[in-house]
Structure formats: structure tokens, C-alpha cells
Amino acid sequence: MKTIFKSMCVLAPMMLLGACSVANDDKPIVSDSDNKSQQKPNIVIFYVDDLGYGDLSAYGAKHVKTPNVDELANNGIRFTDAHSSSATCTPSRYSLLTGEYAFRNKASVLKGDAAMIIKPEQPTLAKVLKKAGYQTGVVGKWHLGLGDGTKPIDWNQAVKPGPLEIGFDYSFLLPATGDRVPTVYLENHHVLNLEKSDPLIIDYEQKVGNRPTGYENPELERQAADHQHNKTIINGIARIGWMQGGHKAEWKDEDFYKVFTDKANDFIRQNQVDPFFLFFSFSDIHVPRLPNERFLGKSGMGVRGDSILQMDWMTGQVVKQLKSLNLLDNTLIIFTSDNGPVLNDGYDDKAVELLGQHKPAGPFRGGKYSAYEAGTRMPTILHYPNQVKPGVSDALMSQVDIYASVANLVGIDLNQDEAIDSQNRLSAWLDASEPGRQYLLEESYTLSLRDGQWKYIKPTDKKAAWVTNDKNIESGLSPSAQLFNLAQDPQEQHNLAMKKPQKVSELKQKLDAIVKRAQRE
């Protein structure tokens, strides 16, 4: 603790409300009246799934209201140019927790029975905060894999390695996603409510068990599913993959809002004395969208809009808990999303037909899966009353920088081979007038590079016709280089690559240098 306090005085004096003074014996001089202001902040990351830049009223949405999230924005910093590291979910989560781009580990969207892609020996954001004396917890969607991959996961025994092996003290998870089996909760190492007499078996290659499937019994589906999502039917929804047994352990999708909120609030209450880190990873607004009946029909935009209302309520409940325990002022909250929006993502839930005039991606082109801006430009809010004045920041920001910035905040020095892509941008996170990055990498099914308002999209021969045809989202992939000036062309309509070959060459070289980098700069 002595070393941490001293580091905070040197590295981040702006973080302390009182003067920072250290005596010869290296003990901080802090009066009882200063104890509260000198405490390290609690940290809560609200990580929403598939929420677009235009899906919040704080970001201009007119047809759906998000008052609880808006309150965070009104009393914090609302970022207009902040990015997830990837346009898909598993890679974004990997980058946030490890401080390195997902392509370095070939991370992609995982099956529900995949091995964990963060190795137990790997540094993580949770481990950094444990070093600084934090209690750490993750609640909600995981989708980073489980087990070591040496053999298939036995869901009837302790499932590990998992979050507890990479720095979390507590975990309560959807093991993968709502549209993938197993459709059970995993608390720490064990499936909740699983009976030995009804063992759980999962397979992604061939059918197991006698449960009905979407391709055999489409009449049993509450929402029609595409060929990928038409395997075992649970709670009236066909999922990706096959599942046998585990009947008493099954979740009910409509209960997510309460189950996850209660678990998050329980973690906060149980750890209110010491500083804590909560990674609250939402299932909403990912498919299948099955909001609870208290939100059903309230948005006028179908179940996708209703799920946005549910997400907003959940956020408000956690903030209310922080307030009730007198913790909100000294809690750093980051609210953001893992990737851009998608309407039709495997189920016919009328998201397209009931969209109306709502624009999930706001003014930007693309969405989930896309190399265009809407793929990674996320609604991002930082709320920290003890230190942050309300404002709007146009700084270029990346979620991959949360790792190094938080480490600086709590006074932990990083190794050169740790979080190699993460930059300390603490000043920009805490002050809307401070500059962010000059360069920023965006990952989709190719790589892109932002240089200020310039954007270069690397050419690729990859095909993603399914994104355009099935999802109605422009993939942004091209066999030719693309270059845009976002200051003049925020919708990326005018490719300037032919007119500015020197700029293309400059950004290509910079992107190649980032890809080859093996240590933190």
C-alpha cells in the first residue's frame, strides 16, 4: 500500500483531492477527514452487447429513451470518438481485459464450448487491480471460452480455467452467449442448479439427446431462426449447438434482467468496504432478444427497442445501489459497448420491420462485423463525480487503453511485454479537454487505422457477403485500399485512396508497424 500511494502521488496527482505528502518513513500523512477522499475509486465497467452509437437518447436517439444512462452522460464525460477494438464481441472483450489487440491471439467469435483464449499466466486488467488491493468480479456474458482445451469441457464437474484463474475473485456467467448452448448459469466453477441425475452434455458437431431442434420442429420456435441458430430449442428459442440434459439448470431468458442485476448488486454490497472492480457484461441487446414482460411493448420498436429499455433499467439499478451505499461519488464508471449494432442477427424478431425512424448506428456507416466506423465507434461515457467535470470529448479513444490507464490510476507499473497495445490515456479519460490518441487501430474482418480524422482500411481478398446479404450491413471489405477523411466525410462515402497514394502508403506503414510490435511503446 505504501508503494501504491507513493506511485499515485508521482504519476497521478490530479487524482487526489487533498495534497499528497509522504514522510521519511514512506507513510502517507492523511488525516481522518481525508480518508474518504484518498481512497482508491471503485471501478465499474458496464459492457453492453451490440449497442450502437445511435441507440441512446444521450447520443441523439429520438425514438427510444434511456434516462438512466443519460444521467451518467449528463454528469460525466460523453465521448464522441471512442472505439471498441473490434467490430465483433469476443475480440473486443479479449482486448479490454488483456490490453492487446485480438489479432495477436487470432481471437475470433467462439463456439460455446471453446477453450478459454486468455491463458492463466497472461496478465489481465483484473490481475492489475488485485495487485492494487481490489476485489474483482465479473457478471454476465463471458464468451471468452472456458477450460484449457486439452479435452472437452465436462459441465458436470468444476469448469476451469475460467475467470477465477485470470484475476477475478467472483464470476457469475452466461458461459458464451444467449444464442449458444449451454443455456445455463455458471457461478465460479460450477453450473448452477445442475442435478447429477440429469447430466449436461454439449456438442457443436452432431446432435446429442432428444430435445427438439429448430430444423426438425420449426413450429415450436417463438422466433424463426436461420440455419446457424436452428439447433436445440430451449425456452422456445432454437440455439447454436446441441444440448442434452441439464433441465433444472436451464436459464429463462426473460429473467436475465433481474438475475444479473441482483448478482451485480450483491457483489457491490458484499465488497463495499474495500475497493472493488465489477465487469458487468450485459447480454442485452444481443439476440435472442427476450426482454421481461415489464419492458415488453414499451418502446414501440419491438423487442430490440424493449431490450434497450431493459438495459437502461439494469444500469439504473446498479447506480441506485452505489448511491444507497454512499459509493457513487468515489466510483469510476465506464459505460460502453463491445461492437456496433445489428438488427437481423439470426432470428426473425421484427427488429427491421419495427425500426421506424430510429438509426442504431447514428450518422455512421456499417455496424457489427463492419470495417466502417459504426463497427467500432461506441457510445462511451465516463462517470466519476469525485474527479470528473461533466463535458463532451471529441478525443480519439480506444477501449484497449483502459488497461494501462487504470493501472496508472491505481499506481501499478506495467512490464514491457504486458498489455503491449494499451496506452496510458488517463488524462483524456478524466478531462474532456485533453487530447486522446493520434493513431487508433480498428479490427473487423480486416484491419483499419485512424490517424486523426484520416481513416485507412486495409485491402483484403476475404469475402463477407453474408454480412451484406443476411445482416444488411456493409462489411467495408475491398480488394483495394480505402481512404477517407472523416472530418469532411463521416459516412465514408468518398474513397480518396487513388487521389492520395502518399497518405495511403504512410498509414499502411504505420499499421504494419503496429502489427509487428512486440512490446509496449
Supply the CATH architecture of the largest domain.
3-Layer(aba) Sandwich
Q: Structural class of the helices, strands and pairings?
A: alpha/beta
Termini Cα gap: 27 Å
Shape: globular
Radius of gyration: 23 Å
Count every beta strand, where a strand is a DSSP E run of 2 or more residues. 19
Strand coverage percent: 15-25%
Secondary-structure element order, N to C: HHEHEHHEEEEEEEEHEHEEEEHHEEEHEH
Low-confidence stretches: 1-37
Largest sheet properties: 11 strands, mixed
Which CATH class of the largest domain? Answer: Alpha Beta
- Here the CATH topology of the largest domain equals Alkaline Phosphatase, subunit A
What is the helical fraction, as a range of percent? Answer: 10-25%
How many domain regions?
A: 3
Please tally the helical runs, counting DSSP H or I stretches of 4 or more residues: 11
Average residue pLDDT: 93
CATH superfamily of the largest domain: Alkaline Phosphatase, subunit A
Domain Sulfatase N-terminal: 41-412
Keywords: Hydrolase, Plasmid, Signal
Signal peptide: 1-23
Family: Belongs to the sulfatase family.
Structure characterization notes:
The chain has 521 residues and is an alpha/beta fold. The protein contains 11 helices and 19 strands. Strands 1, 2, 3, 4, 5, 6, 11, 12, 13, 14 and 15 form an 11-stranded mixed β-sheet that branches. Strands 16-17-18-19 form a 4-stranded antiparallel β-sheet, covered by helices on one side. Strand 17 and strand 18 form a beta hairpin. Helix 6 packs parallel to helix 7. It is globular.
Layout of strands and helices, then pairs:
Elements: H1 2-11, H2 35-38, E1 42-48, H3 67-74, E2 77-83, H4 89-98, H5 125-131, E3 135-141, E4 170-174, E5 186-187, E6 190-191, E7 201-203, E8 233-234, E9 237-238, E10 242-244, H6 256-270, E11 276-281, H7 302-324, E12 331-337, E13 377-383, E14 391-393, E15 397-398, H8 402-409, H9 426-430, E16 439-443, E17 447-451, E18 454-457, H10 465-471, E19 482-485, H11 501-516
Parallel strand pairs: 1-11, 1-12, 2-14, 2-15, 3-4, 3-11
Antiparallel strand pairs: 2-13, 4-5, 5-6, 7-10, 8-9, 12-13, 16-17, 17-18, 18-19
